[in-house]
Amino acid sequence: MPRNDQSVLEEIQYLVIEPPDGGQSWPSQLWDREEVLGYLEQRQNRLLKMTHLVVGEASPETLGIGATTITLPQDLQKVVRVVWLGDDGVVRPIERGEHFAADRLPLGSPFPLVYLEGLQDTLLLTLAPAPTAAGQILVQYVPTAPPPTGDGEHFTVPDTLLPILTWGALADMTAKIGRGQDLRRSAHAETRYALGEAALLLLLSGKR
Amino acid sequence: MAYTTKTLGDLQHLLAMKWEDTPFWTPEEARLAVNDALAWWGLLTGSWPQRATLNAAIGEHEYALPGTLLWRTRVIFQGTVLEISSRADLDRGQPTWMGETAGDVGVPAAPLVWAPISLQSIAIWPAPAATVINGLVVDGLGDAPILSEDADTVDLEEGWISHLLGMALCTAAWKEGGPRFASTLPLFQAFIGAAVEQNGQLTSSQVFRSLLGLDTRRGEVATRGADTSTFQQTIGQVLGG
Fold first, then answer.
1. pTM for the complete prediction?
2. Which residue of A has its CA nearest to B69?
3. pLDDT > 90: what percent of chain A?
């Protein structure tokens, strides 16, 4: 049986004693549909960012001689890897750096040696030193997932990992200040989420 | 290792037997709780392996794995097992690897290593020199079974069943909270302990060690100040002449 955002919402409804209807209505009014979908979206993006479950690749961007800035994809959550594709056939990974080291890099390199984040506006990446040859920059990154709509669509994470999102959303729902707050149950749900995230990190660690 | 086959109906019946009083859950809630426990068990222990076959394309380094393969443990190219590497190792040890195909000058004649890129994609090096239908075989962890009908079956080891049902009971009780839920927390703990026994790698995570109370090393070694008595005596002697 394929699982989708409606089946996850319904499972959550069972666990918070709401009438199960695929997440359409929440008569207790302790939560609403959009709120729960928001929790699922946040947990999914957090899981993707922490574990690199999914790694996307932007189309190579041309970098002219002396240029030091490239534009990052709109759906970028986290930069994973930056690669220089020289017009002369040279392919080199570019390491992540910071401005103190970048200020002391030797000039005259045909390709950038480091990339720096946060020096410019959002979604702009700085490269140093300025290359003396033309080439392209390939960026691999963790993307934000399409937000769940509750209309029967699949999540970005594999179905078998959906319990991690479910329990993450339950942790958020029962931590909400109000009549629905139950910190003991929230802590347990958060523990399950943390265990799932830790297990995925173990799967993906060491040989990333 | 002995395996037993259980149906969803069997597991629901066994779940009810773990609760002395009238079950406080519906059959659908029991089904969801059992599937939830199976999913957690699969993630933590990798108990349901799977194999996928892919076409190896000429010049192609990166391959997406099918969605039912959760994690890859072994990659084989035309009968040869590839050694595991990492993208970082390739970037530093063979910086031009992304542009290299098998048979290029100074490059091995066939793919030798593979590296994980994400959960469901891998890279191989060097890229194949020709397209090979079904040339790549990937062994990995498959999705946990999802039981829908009473007659649906799952293969389980006898020693797992009690822990799985304990986890399912904890899930079912969560909706109520209070003392009933609290009484199932030891079952959750036991489930995690059983998963750790099955997969010792989990103990390398501080999250699991903390949950199971294994993180006691620091408390066993009491911190204390350095012994300065000898130093003070020496200084006294020096100053006293």
1. 0.85
2. A158
3. 62
